[in-house]
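Ticket reopened. Same input as before:
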Amino acid sequence: MTRPLPIADVVHQRKTTKAFELGQGLTPEQSAAVREILRMSPSSTNAQPWHFFIATTDAGKRRVAAGASGNFSYNEPKIMNAAEVIVLCARTALDESYLQQVLDQETQDGRLANEEARINQHNVRKGYVQKHGATGNLLNWTARQVYIALGFLLLGAAEMGVDACPIEGFDDTAVDAELGLAAKGLKSVVLVALGHRSDADFNAALPKSRLAESLVITDL
Ligand SMILES: Cc1cc2nc3c(=O)[nH]c(=O)nc-3n(C[C@H](O)[C@H](O)[C@H](O)COP(=O)(O)O)c2cc1C
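Engineering reply: fixed in the latest deploy. New output:
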């Protein structure tokens, strides 16, 4: 994939990579950009209810591949041959100390002019957390935020000329156990393998397929 391309072209050019060339790494600048894309992703109320594990070594990728056995073994070579594999995790709880941490960061970053603004911001965010928590949907809500980071990452990687494979086909329970996520208040949601496609990537030669605009978009 070459760059730079207008974003309207990137969405046509990017394709899920089905096979990676082992040993083809990202440049240090690309690796740094991947981290920044994840960190800078937007989230509802700026709650940032996520954590990202990045495996760059064989040992690290092997740990992620704990979730790629049995029915999911078709994704194992993608994980092991990619340059970097990211485990995108959602927070299972947003307790008071975490909410205070986010609030303190916003204060430090100069977004909250005074104590009244601080209290208001805190209460709004807490209201969302309570609303979703009350119906037992907090993880559903935090996972939806994680998918925004996924979208940013897929588009950002493509723009940088990095090939990617989003992976929902993995045993999340196995990955959670391998990384000790429950004790960290986290749940694995989706993986992304990053690197450079190999000649075995059959998807590269296939045309993209999407439903017609008239079926998915309605003008009001
Ligand atoms: C959330 C998500 C999960 C996916 N999981 C897998 C997966 O486990 N294995 C795989 O080979 N492709 C996976 N895909 C790739 C999709 O099949 C692919 O995005 C879709 O067919 C559209 O093709 P394109 O990405 O080449 O445009 C996933 C895509 C998304 C967005």
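The first strand starts at residue 50 and ends at 55. Residues 15-16, 18, 75, 165-169, 190, 203, 208 surround flavin mononucleotide (CB under 6 Å). Please confirm and we'll close it.
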